[in-house]
Write a structure and sequence with these properties.
alpha/beta, Rossmann fold, seven-stranded mixed β-sheet, two-stranded antiparallel sheet, 9 strands, rod-shaped
Length: 551
């Protein structure tokens, strides 16, 4: 079917805008699938396929269908136009549900008749029956159909009428003076085809039975009813198949329209416009809405709270402080910090590569969202969808809301993956903390060296050994200064570094918060925003396609 559509568009693209109409309707149907009711889209698809198929068939023939109720004289009119007794009339009407076709100019008509579904035994070539006449030349290219009675009690008859009414290029409705106001023809056929008035004619037959003084008012009444059906301006021809009155005018009207070679495309354009109008009514005319940044921000904030971003940020700050204090604290007591659990490890956010292998992926142990947090997420999603779909039609608004919830069950896993995959920046201690660690150990070694020196001095004096003179600084023994200075400076330095550690921890927490929220925004984009935007893009495509088909 795709190749047929493409071929049809190429076939007509240079000479008419019907190719653009086909392209627009096709795009609108594809974009609306799953968002508008399937029966409506299937009907539009049928119109599209019918138009594409008709464009491939004979452009030299025009299908003219005579339709009417029982007793309207439709078959008599058919016989009068063809000059042949092809259709049985009155009580001799056949019970078959097939239409009869008479063709003027046979070249290329076979495929068209096959497409119309006319059996070979119901086909007549006008040129094979009589010698060509001037009338035949005027009617060349006409495929005249005599349809079954549309009000027949046989279901197969009016089903055949319904089918061929959709396929005919030019419809001629034959009305009876006694039943021209019958709702069966007006409500079922004429009014629904109001968009096709350019390819319709109305014949008031049997006018030989109408008193001369009433004919004009009767024709005026027919026009009034047609105006009420939305068919203002279509020709109404008064005829009598029995006497021949008006038959020449009817034949001339048909021949003139066929000669202009516009009927086929006019009918197809009317079909495409009609399908586009029906889709347009279901789609609406609202401009394509855009997602509000405010609503998206509210959604991201709700997801961040639900995912436990504040908890993780606090853990990053506490973990950075713990690790940095361990590195910069006085080594004698800093090792006690190893007895405290690392906040990030408790959340399974710093397991390392081996931990991820054990867990299969970066699975976290962040506390599950509370009922309030879940409700806040649901409210944010609902508000976002309601805000963007406020002016859309019911079908498209429902599609937006469905899209916003289409991946709702994946939110928890998506948020958890986002937390586990985000680089929090707490694994490495600051460079300056490494330098402080070296300095602390040097101070500790100095203190230990001074203590050992003093111990050696006391031991030698106790054992009455002679020792070299002890160096002094400002009157104080150097070993004592090393001991006291190493301990005091180490402790003071550790206390000072706590200020630096606190500032570093806050800075890393802010950086982690930004990265986590960026990851949460990606989850919101993937699982909520993008599905909604896809629907909005589909709406925009459908709206543009409908407008293109209607232009």
């Amino acid at each position: 079917m795709t190749s047929l559509l493409e071929g049809a568009k190429k076939l007509v693209s240079r000479s008419t805008d019907i190719g653009a109409r086909i392209e627009g309707l096709d795009a609108a149907i594809v974009a609306s699938r799953g968002r508008l009711p399937d029966p409506l889209l299937d009907e539009s698809q049928t119109v599209l396929e019918r138009a594409s198929s008709r464009l491939w068939l004979s452009a030299d023939h025009t299908v003219v269908a005579l339709a009417g109720a029982t007793g309207s004289g439709k078959s008599s009119t058919f016989n009068a136009l063809t000059g042949l007794e092809l259709s049985a009339v009155g009580v001799r009407r056949p019970t078959t549900s097939w239409a009869t076709a008479c063709v003027w100019g046979a070249d290329g008509a076979e495929d068209l008749l096959d497409w119309l579904g006319i059996p070979p035994r119901h086909r007549v070539l006008r040129s094979s029956m009589l010698e060509p006449t001037r009338e035949d030349d005027a009617m060349r290219g006409v495929v005249l159909l005599d349809l079954p009675d549309h009000d027949s009690t046989e279901v197969s008859h009016h089903l055949e009428v319904d089918r061929l009414v959709q396929l005919a290029d030019l419809m001629v409705w034959v009305l009876d003076p006694q039943k021209y106001a019958d709702a069966a023809v007006h409500d079922r056929y004429l009014a629904p085809l109001a968009t096709h008035r350019e390819v319709m004619l109305v014949v008031l037959n049997h006018v030989d039975t109408v008193p001369a003084g009433r004919l004009e008012s009767m024709v005026a009444d027919v026009r009034r009813l047609l105006d009420a059906d939305g068919l203002a301006g279509i020709p109404v021809i008064a005829t009598s198949a029995r006497t021949g009155q008006g038959m020449e005018e009817l034949r001339r009207e048909i021949a003139t329209r066929v000669a202009k070679k516009k009927v086929v495309r006019t009918r197809l354009e009317a079909d495409l416009r009609g399908a586009a109008q029906r889709m347009g009514e279901a789609t609406g005319t609202a401009p394509t809405p855009k997602l509000s940044k405010e609503r998206v921000t509210e959604l991201e904030e709700a997801l961040a709270q639900s995912a436990g971003v504040p908890t993780v940020v606090k853990a990053v700050e506490d973990s950075t402080r713990l690790r940095a204090n361990r590195a910069t604290g006085w080594p004698v007591v800093a090792w006690f910090s190893r007895l405290r659990p690392d906040p990030l490890k408790r959340l399974h956010l710093d397991l390392g590569s081996s931990g991820k292998e054990l867990a299969g992926r970066a699975r976290t142990s962040v506390p599950a969202p509370t009922t309030v947090q879940r409700a806040r997420v649901d409210s944010a999603v609902r508000t976002l969808a309601d805000d963007v779909s406020r002016d859309l039609s019911r079908s498209w608004g429902h599609a937006v809301r469905e899209a916003s919830l289409s991946r709702h069950d994946d939110l928890n896993d998506g948020l958890d993956r986002a937390l586990g995959a985000t680089e929090l920046g707490a694994a490495r201690i600051p460079v300056w903390a490494g330098l402080v660690r070296v300095l602390q150990w040097l101070l500790l070694l100095a203190a230990l060296g001074g203590a050992a020196w003093l111990g050696a001095m006391f031991a030698t004096r106790y054992l009455t050994f002679e020792m070299p003179a002890t160096p002094e600084i400002a009157g104080y023994p150097l070993p004592l200064l090393l001991l006291i200075g190493g301990v005091v400076l180490g402790i003071l330095f550790a206390l000072f570094c706590r200020l630096l550690v606190r500032a570093t921890a806050r800075r890393r927490a802010r950086a982690a918060d930004r990265r986590l929220r960026a990851a949460i925004a990606e989850v919101a984009e993937e699982l909520v925003v993008k599905p909604v935007q896809d629907v909005l893009a589909g709406y925009d495509t459908a709206r543009r396609g409908i407008d293109q088909a209607l232009q």
